[in-house]
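Example 9 (inverse folding). The structure is encoded as follows.
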């Protein structure tokens, strides 16, 4: 990360593939000035493969898992984007 980059975290409230897809899209479309991170997705392998296929059709690769992290104390972000479907488990 260069000293001019801002750290951004994409977080999906329901642990879907949304955070990874959003981070991958931003990486491809507007890499600078961002150091882009995402939270892990707890999804079946076949869903991740489908997301890869969709992004591949657009010429976009999934962000590598080296850019994956859990939010925790001590980590700082300049921006955070929470992605949510609006549905709740009640």
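The amino acid assigned to each position is listed next.
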């Amino acid at each position: 990360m260069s000293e001019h980059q801002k750290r951004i975290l994409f977080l999906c409230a329901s642990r879907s593939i949304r955070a990874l897809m959003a981070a991958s899209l931003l990486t491809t479309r507007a890499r600078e000035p961002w150091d882009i991170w995402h939270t892990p997705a707890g999804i079946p392998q076949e869903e991740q493969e489908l997301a890869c296929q969709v992004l591949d059709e657009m010429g976009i690769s999934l962000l590598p898992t080296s850019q994956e992290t859990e939010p925790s104390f001590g980590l700082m972000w300049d921006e955070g984007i929470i992605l949510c479907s609006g549905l709740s488990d009640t």
